[in-house]
Amino acid sequence: MTHFRSEPEPSVGITPVEHTGSATTREAPAPPTGHAPVNDQRRAQLLLASVMDRIGTNRCHKVILAIVVFGAFFDVIEQNTVGIVGPFLKEQWGVSSTGIGFLASATFGSMYVGAALAGWLSDLKGRKTMFNFNLALYSLGALVCALAPNFEVLVTGRVIVGLGLGGEFVVGLTLLAEMTSTQFRGTAISLLQVGAGGLGNPAAYLFGWVTVGMVGPHLPQFLGGPDTGWRWVFVLLCLPALLVLYTRRHMPETPRYLVSKARTADANRSLSVLASGRMNPRGLVVTDYLPDGLRVTEEKARWTEILKGRLGRNSAVLGSCTAALFGAQFVLLTFWPTILVDRGYPVATSLAFTMIIFTGAVTGTLFATFLNTRCRRRPTIAVAAALSCASALAFPFLANGATAILVLGFLFEFFSWWANCSISTWCPELYPTRVRAFGIGVISNLGMIGGALLPPVAGALLGSMGSTALLSLVAVMCAVVLVAVPFGPETFGRSLEELHDEN
After folding, report:
1. Terminal-residue alpha carbon distance, the chain
2. CB 229 within 8 A of CB 211
3. Which of 33, 82, 269, 416 is the most exposed place for a label (fewest CB within 10 A)?
4. Could you read off the pLDDT of 384-420 as tens digits, one per residue?
């Protein structure tokens, strides 16, 4: 096992001290008589950024990334379960289409509440605490769904699931942003999008097909019999609860959060765990990267901060981009098959074409992962938004055959998910630690609102004016992103502490 020992930068002028055992809080020396106490908050933040960048990326960071991505992957599968089990609920319980729609609404409605609450509580109680709580909450909800004796209990289970799902991505995004170095931050957040949106959506229907389509009809009686295949969808989605048993004991809290709460001794321990390269190192040597002499005070968070001044402008930019882009993506997620049927393709062919088109989401997020460690945020997002707009406008005029349809559809999904992934990387960089999770929660909700409001408008346009009008609406939404992005700050290559002078 190796221990990280850092030599501080000369400008900071602080020498770290190593000691074994648990980190303990020591009393800072009193200031000289006649002098006001010196607040070293900013000094501690810059030293923290320097230490984390020098620790870099090791096995510990990769394990944390894998845990967060695994949780987000199951999140997306969980979001799609209503569509997977809906036909079985109709057949076995006589649930109407309206009832299935209500079940989906109960899930997504509680996700709005969960995102806002988890962001707020994460800023108060810690990233690790809320990450574990959300995993446990939606696993509990999945178990309630699996055992539900009737529709009412199933709805209750979906509400519990939604509360956990809404907070999971918000807290996971915050945790990765704060746990990684400046160089690795873009890659880590982008890979979260690859695992969630890029792979999660197609995996959801593959999971459903295997569980209820292939295995379900052959379940033996001691496992419930063939009629319980849909319940096993929910049972298997309780697996993320096992992560809680591991992360509850071993995952460190983010050092940035601990410093914001004036818990420098705990921050030193978290930094030492990260530097060791192992989640649960034996004989850990705790290094005082942040010496006891630093006078660090707890940062008070006010949720109204994200609506005022510089942070208010950041919120306006991110909110506009997220609502517009998510809305555009939800429109085509909903209407691709209908657009293709209107062009004369059979339903089966339109669904097959849609599956091929959505491979653009996977490749788009992977491409964004490559760019987000090498290119500035604003130009990257602007180029992706412009190309998304162009591909949406080109589709009605150039998609005249199967090949053109597949190519142009693929390109839209590629460019829009490239933009989506880059915006998700940008988002946590635009808020200081004390309100970062809450800010991400609010922006996430604005994206979901865009996704809820635009499809009905698009459906009305499709019915009255055809697919050209619908795709023009999508292009306009992408243009909103293009216009809004220049009003936000550039964050590439800068530590979170450099971006926010919090004193």
Report:
1. 38
2. yes
3. 33
4. 999 999 999 999 999 888 999 999 999 999 999 999 9
| Residues 207 and 309 both lie in one domain | no
Q: How many helices (H) and strands (E) does the chain have?
A: 20, 2
Residue 204 belongs to a domain: yes
The reply to whether 238 and 315 lie within a common domain is: no
Residue type at 1 in one-letter notation:
M
- Residue 41 domain-assigned? no
Q: Which residues of the chain have pLDDT under 50?
A: 1-38, 502-503
pLDDT per position as a tens digit, 67-106? 888 888 888 888 778 777 887 888 889 888 788 878 887 8
* 382 shares a domain with 236: no
H-state helical runs in 148-219: 151-179, 182-193, 199-208
Residue 8 lies in a domain: no
Report the pLDDT value the prediction gives residue 503, as an integer from 0 to 100.
42
Q: Provide CB contacts within 8 A for 442, sequence distance 6+.
A: 116, 119, 306, 315, 319
Predicted local distance difference test score (pLDDT) of residue 222: 62
Single-letter amino acid, residue 15: T
Phi first, then psi, for residue 20 (nearest 5°) are -95, 165
Q: What SS3 state is found at 488?
A: coil
Residue entry with tokens 């010496």: 291
Residues 236 and 365 in one domain: no
The CATH code of the domain that includes 462 is: 1.20.1250.20
Q: Which of 470, 444, 442 is nearest to 456 (CA)?
A: 470
The DSSP code for 470 is H
CB 332 within 8 A of CB 412: yes
pTM (2 decimals)? 0.80
Instruction: Tell me the C-alpha distance between 197 and 188, whole Å.
Output: 14
Integer Cα distance of 388 and 318 in angstroms: 18
- Tokens 């052959």 identify what position? 218
Residue 94: count of CB within 10 angstroms of its CB? 9
Q: What whole-number distance in Å separates Cα of residue 2 and Cα of residue 343?
A: 63
pLDDT at res. 336: 85
Q: 75 is in which domain, residue-wise?
A: 59-250
| Structural domains of the chain, count | 2
Indicate the residue among 208, 225, 250 that finishes a domain.
Answer: 250
Q: Are residues 238 and 332 in the same domain?
A: no
| Residues 243 and 321 occupy one common structural domain | no
Are residue 336 and residue 211 in the same domain, yes or no?
no
Query: Are both 229 and 309 inside the same structural domain?
Result: no
The verdict on residue 266 lying in a domain is: no
